Structures are given as structure tokens and as C-alpha cells.
Known about the structure:
Elements lengths: L6 H7 L1 H14 L6 H14 L3 E5 L2 H11 L7 E4 L6 H8 L3 E4 L11 H7 L4 E7 L8 H11 L2 E5 L7 E2 L2 E2 L6 E5 L13 E5 L2 H10 L4 E3 L2 E2 L10 H11 L2 H19 L13 E2 L5 E4 L3 H10 L29 H9 E4 L7 H18 L3
Parallel strand pairs: 2-3, 2-4, 4-5, 5-8
Antiparallel strand pairs: 1-9, 6-7, 6-12, 8-9, 10-11, 13-14
The site of pyridoxal-5'-phosphate (PLP) has 15 residues, from helix 4 and helix 5.
Amino acid sequence: MIPLVDLKAQYxxxxxEIDEAIARVLAQTAFIQGEDVALLEQEFASFCGARxxxxxxxxxxxxxLALLAxxxxxxxxxxxxxxxxxxxxxxxxxxGARPVFADVDPVTLNIDPSHIEAAVTSRTKAxxxxxxxxxxADMDPIREVADRHGLKVIEDAAQAHGARYKGRRVGTLSDVxxxxxxxxxxxxxxxxxxxxxxxxxxxxxxxxxxxxxxRRDKYEHLQVGSNSRLDTIQAAIVRAxxxxxxxxxxxxxxxxxxxxxxxxxxxxGLPQEDEWAEPVYHLFVVRTPERDRxxxxxxxxxxxxxxxxxxxxxxxxxxxxxxxGAGDFPYSEQAANDMLSIPIYPELSDTQVHxxxxxxxxxxxxxxxx
Length: 370
Ligand SMILES: *Cc1c(COP(=O)(O)O)cnc(C)c1O
């Protein structure tokens, strides 16, 4: 059996560091806003090359608080991709604004800057770019569209910790960036956790207030905020894992190279790397019109796969009130029908990669029309 991700294998490989980190927090009994939270904020912001980090309860909360900090609210529109996890767009609804979708590039599957331009109206306030599957979106043209129309840019970097765009880390390519430390992400906690990073001290200060009931003192509240704090135990775990992130991302890239060499010539669509991109392969996504049958063959061979994501957001029942329909974003819809995520995680061995690739080659040969 080969799983899609193997959190147990990773825990086993760093057990003593994790256990020690948790024990330290327990000994301090500083469970809320303990010192590991502030230390992780500094360490992760500095890893990315940003000035400020603010730990929050999840990636979803990072997005919601970033939007609030930029002043996005009722009556505003925010442009984003329909090919992402629902949180990217639900955060926009949570602050009272309206998600407006723009289709993706058919190859990179990241939002296409030329489609953004067409979606701008007088109500547009911001753009959320997602670095899908760990591959950076093309941020320079996105910034140009934003500057032409006076819009803010947010990165949803939940799948891309450590990825680079033109040599710079994702998270430093926008006004404010949002990360998730959900357990299965490239840098994952052992529960829910997230972070906002920015170079703008006012945005950081605003997120810091909002994540903790708007308090200045224990019982003096400057604004109506929420309890969206980053748990101290989770912060300690993420700090321990951050020391391994570069090496884990290198291993993901090596696995991607191996998959690419083993699957070339099969007719399968493989992830492309732009010359300016250094992706971190949160997922390795192949594409084929025979997706469902390939997935079934892999399942029979004991190989787990996933689909990220099977329903584009504009076709989600939750967003039916936005008035979109089938055919509105053809490249996203096409991808939803033909993408398949195959196993990738740092502990996956070369032998396992060869095994997955062999099963795929055999399945495709069988599925090929006579
Ligand atoms: C995981 C993810 C989120 C949400 O993060 P949570 O920590 O689960 O709230 C948001 N956007 C994208 C693209 C994600 O992959």
C-alpha cells in the first residue's frame, strides 16, 4: 500500500524533536500565546524574507484576517481563481465581500493575469492569487494589473511554503500572504494552525489585534476581533519541523524529477516548470482524459490518489447565489475533470516512485484504445 501522504513516517523520522517540543510547552504551561508563538512568527517570517509574521488559528483564518486588515468588506469584490480549496473564496464571503472568479492558465493551472483584467469592476478591491499545488503563480503581471486599477494583492500560499518566484520566496510577492499549517501541508502542524506574513507593519498590527479579540490589554478591547490565535503547542511543533522544510522540499523536487523521467512519453499531462519558478510540489498532479479509470487501476494496485479539486468553486452549491454556471471557466472545468494527484511526500522512496510509475504505465497501456 502506498498512501497519498504519510504523516506517520514523518513523525517517526523526527519523533524525539517533536516530543521534546511538546514537552517543553507542557512544562511551561504557557498554552495561549506562549513564547513559541512569537518565536515561530520571527523564524517563519525570516525564512520567507518578510518583516512580520502573525500566527493565527488556520489558513482559513489567515485569509479572513488578511482581508479584514486590508479593509475589504461589504460591497467590495475580490478576484480569485475557481480552481482552489474552498477557503480561498469562503474567506471573501466571511468578510461580507463578493468572490469574482477569473479562469486559470490551462498549463500552470494558476490564475491567468489577462482574465483578471477582464473581471475588474469599480467595486474590485483585491486579488487573491493561489500558488496551486506548490507552483508559484505568475506574480509580476498580476501586480501590474493590480497597480493599474489600485488593487491590493494577497497570496494564498497555503500549498507553497518555501517555493520561489524569480528567486524570491512566495509570501513576499504581495501586500499580505497567508499560510496554512494544516497537517498535510508541506509544513504542517499536528492540528490546525496558520500564519499571515507581510512587510507592512500596519497590516501586521491589525491582524495581531483582530486574532485576539481586538485586545490591547487583557480586558481593554480596541476593536471587535475573534479568537483566532495560533495554539502554542502547534507553534512549537511547526518550529521543530521548519528546520527540515528545505530538505523536505528538495526531496519533493527530486521525486517530481523522477516521476517526470519515468512518465515521459506515456501521453499523460505532467506538471510544467516555468523557468522563473521553483515549485515545492505540495502535490504532483498528472492529467488524462482517462482519469477515473486510471484512478481505479491505481486503487486496485494499492496506490492512493486524490483529486484537487473535483468541483471548481463557481460550480459549488455553496456559491450558487453568485450566479455562475457550467462553461463559465472552461480551463478550470477541464482540469477538474482530468487531474489526478499521485503520491508525493518526502519519505516516499525511489523504489515506491518506480512502483507507482510502473503501475501507471501498465494501466495506461491497458486503457489505450486498440
Ligand atoms: C489548506 C488550504 C487553505 C486552508 O487552510 P486551513 O489551514 O485548512 O484553514 C486555504 N487555501 C488553500 C489553497 C489551501 O490549500
